[in-house]
């Protein structure tokens, strides 16, 4: 599913209309909540749609449909949501935004990863040819309200939360698979949503930006986010 923030201006300059595709998913609902609880502005009209409201087709066709339609309609800005799975399978750490295209992604996410990578390629192409302000963000693993808590096919944190809940309810042992050696980063969906809104309003670069819980990144965003709100 393609999640994107699309910003246009109505005739007469105001209000700005902001369309959120994937609006009923984990990230979309988080954005809707933070906008409703104080992050929205009087000169903005936010519209949230799901795949039932707007069928964008599948895989790389979604990129073409969203970005080219945005270009044809004179959209001011598009912020697309990428994924950490786009990074090369064989890489060095820490990773940064310059390393996206440095090698093939993991085979388990091959098609999905390349479709997401192509958003970055297309963003750069639309900027170079037409001057469009299309960009993308790369969140780390997201968790929060409206997540998939299914133990069999849910994400890692909601799956662990569900396991802890069942262990407490049943008085049973808590079993967690794995060696404990792999390291992963997580970001709370409502925090991510606030950063999404900041990127939409304040981030002017075409280059994608990682949204993570790393201390330095959080400090950078806290400083800039606070400045943007003054």
Structure description:
The protein has about 230 residues and is an alpha/beta fold. The chain folds into 2 domains: about 15-140 and about 185-210, NAD(P)-binding Rossmann-like Domain (Rossmann fold, 3-Layer(aba) Sandwich), CATH 3.40.50.720; about 150-185, no CATH class. It has 6 helices and 8 strands, in the order E-E-H-E-H-E-H-E-E-H-E-H-E-H. About 40% of the residues lie in helices and about 15% in strands. Residues about 215-230 have low confidence and may be disordered. It has a 6-stranded mixed beta sheet, sandwiched between helices. Strands 6-7 form a two-stranded parallel sheet. Its EC number is 1.1.1.271. It comes from Callipepla squamata (Scaled quail). Belongs to the NAD(P)-dependent epimerase/dehydratase family. Fucose synthase subfamily. It catalyses: GDP-beta-L-fucose + NADP(+) = GDP-4-dehydro-alpha-D-rhamnose + NADPH + H(+).
What overall geometry do the principal axes of the alpha carbons give?
A: globular
For the largest sheet, list the strands in their spatial order. 3-2-1-4-5-8
| Strand proportion | 15-25%
Total domain units: 2
- Cα-to-Cα separation, first versus last residue: 34 Å
Class by helix and strand content? alpha/beta
Count of DSSP H/I helices: 6
Percent helix range: 40-55%
Task: Give the tally of β-strands.
Answer: 8
The CATH homologous superfamily of the largest domain is called NAD(P)-binding Rossmann-like Domain
Low-confidence stretches: 215-230
Mean pLDDT: 87
Report Rg.
19 Å
CATH topology of the largest domain: Rossmann fold
- The appropriate CATH architecture of the largest domain is 3-Layer(aba) Sandwich
CATH class descriptor of the largest domain: Alpha Beta
